Amino acid sequence: MLKSHKPQELTTRKVLVLINPFSGQKKALNLYNTFCKSIFLEANIQVELRFTKHANHATEIVQTLDIDCYESIGIVSGDGLVNEAITGLLTRSDRDRALRMPIIHIPGGTGNSLAASIAFKCGEPFSARGGFCRELTLMGIKPSYKQLRLHHFESSSDGHKCVFLSVVWGLIADIDIGSERFRWAGMIRLHMEALLRTMQLPTVAKYKGRISYLPIDDESLISKTRFKNNEPRKSFGNGHFGGGDIPDLADMDLNISKPKINTVKDSFKNRELVKIPRLDEPVPDNWITIESEFVMVNVTSLSHIGSDLPYIPSSKLEEEVLYLSLVDWSVVKNRFSIARMLADMDICSHLDYPCFHFIPVKACRIEPAPGAGGHVAVDGEPCTSGSAFQVVASSYCATVACRELRD
């Protein structure tokens, strides 16, 4: 078995497994013992278990990890711990090689968006609400490695972050973060919070702000944003799900034994796919700007924003595209249409609502008006409310364990 980050043959297969014991309903360890442990054992793979103890602990672990000792990193948690691990790889001075270290996302949290997006890309059937740890663990045993595009987030209050999933402002973030009080309920907590929030519309989720973006003029790309997850896969076009192969290691320095640690800001320097102004500078003339009152504004890059929420099924793990989606109060008929749209997300029928706008972009900036409020979340983790922020795609990709396509 060859590691994607090291060309020579391994004598012993070894995986580092990070477990967040506080993730979701605090059942991550039980999920690992029930569904994953025996699979690694039968495959003769050594497992080193480590438990995260505080925020950003996974980042600290991965920043100093001897990547020559492991073929991959398994993460039994939600998307937040995946972000921490990828940030650790990104901020190493040997980041180009370190980002080749494969991530196995074993869905042990509440959202599990990356695991669901990987399964969807591969054509792997999975139980969105019943759990699919076994399926993703098996992918890690006999993997087909694929790229996962990384994006650069900059906030006026929270600085610089790495993003692979989403940056959301407004109702979706309110539901995600507000539902923490119902953590004991598992995935249903999101539906509980959504019901409570929509009952209060329009007195909540009315956020004034300015959105600026650099659009991508690609009619084929735009038309696919309305494709649902139950469409025949051939409808997406030849090769749509087959991209993201890992390039050759030939030109990469493989001999950095003790990497230095950089900031996220420095790590993204000169690696953004388009040059954008600083957050305190005006956007260029070729950007489009909208000012209004919004229900929600989301910037996403995966097909799913939760294991049971197929959001933009046409979105691909590796593509150099961000999907800006928004709901403007000026085109909303009434609060009941918002409630119905949220309820329809789990069957992908939110794509049918004319008030729901999707715009493929290269970069975007969101500037909440003073006092506008509304939660902001990056890959499911809260940021400072009311802060201006911008997101741009980068040339970096992390590596994730998938399997050969099942079409």
From TrEMBL:
Pfam families: DAGK_cat (PF00781). One of its GO terms (biological process) is sphingosine biosynthetic process. GO terms for cellular component: cytoplasm; membrane. Residues 10-117 form the DAGKc domain. GO terms for molecular function: lipid kinase activity. InterPro entries: ATP-NAD_kinase_N, Diacylglycerol_kinase_cat_dom, Lipid_Phosphate_FormReg, NAD/diacylglycerol_kinase_sf. Coiled coil: none annotated. SUPFAM superfamilies: NAD kinase/diacylglycerol kinase-like. SMART domains: DAGKc. It comes from the Eukaryota. This is DAGKc domain-containing protein. It comes from Panagrolaimus davidi.
